[in-house]
Design goal:
CATH architecture: 3-Layer(bba) Sandwich
CATH class: Alpha Beta
Shape: globular
Number of domains: 1
Strand content: 25-35%
Structural class: alpha+beta
Number of helices: 10
Radius of gyration: 21 Å
Number of strands: 21
Distance between the termini: 24 Å
């Protein structure tokens, strides 16, 4: 065998898994079709992510704390409103508690992960490299690259994204649908401080999220914008100039951020849902977007993948310590049982929220606002929602508690 596992896909989830396994003395071969160095360039991807506090604890124990300390912005509170109505739901950690999460630009996390993986002797990174075939039998998973190189391991892991070629080749079906919306992503500088508060304003066309970032280089406050627009308007939104886009955002947030300047090009992403019928096949597991994808409402997509990593690391480390075949059905079944229910529930909640707030009309709006005000007055229910936002519900793997397995 060339390694303990072969990971197909070296993005945020695949690289984090390789690093987590290496911290437990397990080897991996990571194969990605892209030149991963190119994905760290400033112009490659302007997205930022809310890394839940449990996910951040895992990344810190894996040695990535410096990137959060240098560039991360703690989320101290979350405010949810139906448009700009006065009724709201407000989650606040207080001045001393750990934050609900940390906002960080994706490219900065990719840069830190790539450096850590390249420095890890137990990780063999092959990128760019194209998988020509993956064969799986009773004894091993074997990957043949387009250049003829061949690698084997007891287990192959698909971390190659929403359109996973590995999943498709294995014949694993998915439940999937597209939303009649797209997400416009950009960054703004503004005159009013955000105070570490993430705001989610819901409109019938979709939510508008204002996500706190570290200050701009000139000292102004800075926020990431994720604005869900009608699919029919997506092409026009993509073409908006900085001033026009700033005006459209300002009109929807009722002066919350003061004077706004768009400081990054906007990108528009189609939105959809998918969930694999199973996370496993013979000597193969799916993690991250290869297994599931949800609406970006509440920012749970990346954190679902990080929870996959934490659970799978624990499953594989436990199996290795007890001498089990890492590709055996018992090992694969444990991972699937651990992760499928959580991912299915998160997918159902995000889909349901999106559909609920998309219902137009005064009566639905009144019901939503009454519900938000009601939850605001129920501390136990608020505490449950805060635990969900932190990623601290269910049976937590050791890594999500900030501990090695």
């Amino acid at each position: 065998m060339n390694a303990d596992v072969i990971i197909i896909g070296g993005g945020l989830i695949g690289s984090t898994l390789a690093l987590a396994l290496a911290r437990h003395d397990m080897s991996s071969i990571v194969i990605d079709a892209q030149d991963l160095t190119a994905t760290t360039a400033a112009g490659f991807d302007g997205r930022a992510s809310a890394v839940a506090s449990a996910s951040a604890q895992m990344l810190r124990i894996l040695g990535l704390g410096d990137v959060f300390d240098a560039h991360g912005c703690p989320i101290r509170a979350i405010r949810v409103t139906d448009g700009t109505a006065p009724q709201f739901l407000h989650f606040d950690t207080g001045s001393t508690a750990d934050p609900l999460g940390i906002m960080l630009e994706n490219r900065l996390l990719r840069t830190a992960l790539l450096a850590a993986v390249q420095a890890e002797p137990l990780v063999t990174l092959l990128a760019p490299a194209q998988v020509a075939s993956l064969t799986r039998d009773d004894h091993a998973a074997t990957v043949t690259l387009a250049d003829g190189r061949v690698f084997t391991a007891p287990l192959a892991i698909a971390a190659d994204g929403r359109r996973s070629a590995t999943r498709e080749a294995a014949g694993i079906r998915i439940a999937t649908w597209s939303y009649p919306n797209a997400a416009l992503v950009s960054m703004v500088a503004h005159s009013e401080p955000h105070g570490g508060v993430a705001c989610e304003l819901f409109y019938p066309s979709g939510p508008l999220a204002l996500l706190p970032m570290t200050d701009h280089g000139d000292g102004r406050a800075r926020s990431a914008i994720v604005w869900t627009v009608d699919a029919a308007a997506a092409a026009g939104a993509r073409k908006l100039g900085p001033r026009a886009l700033a005006g459209e955002i300002a009109a929807r947030i009722d002066g919350t951020l003061g004077d706004i300047e768009v400081i990054a090009p906007q990108a528009v992403w189609p939105l959809g849902y998918h969930h694999a019928a199973t996370y496993q096949a013979q000597r193969l597991l799916l993690i991250g977007d290869a297994g599931h994808g949800v609406h970006p409402i509440a920012g749970q997509g990346l954190n679902m993948g990080f929870r996959d990593v934490a659970a799978l690391t624990e499953v594989l480390v436990d199996a290795a310590r007890t001498g089990l075949d890492l590709g055996s059905p018992a090992v694969l079944d444990r991972y699937g049982a651990w992760r499928r229910l959580d991912n299915a529930m998160v997918g159902a909640v995000t889909d349901g929220l999106n559909r609920l707030f998309a219902i137009p009309g005064r009566l639905p709006a009144a019901v939503r606002r009454f519900g938000l005000a009601g939850v605001q007055r129920l501390p136990p229910l608020k505490a449950r929602f805060m635990a969900e936002a932190r990623g601290e519900t269910g049976t937590l793997p050791a890594l999500l508690r900030g501990e090695l397995v």
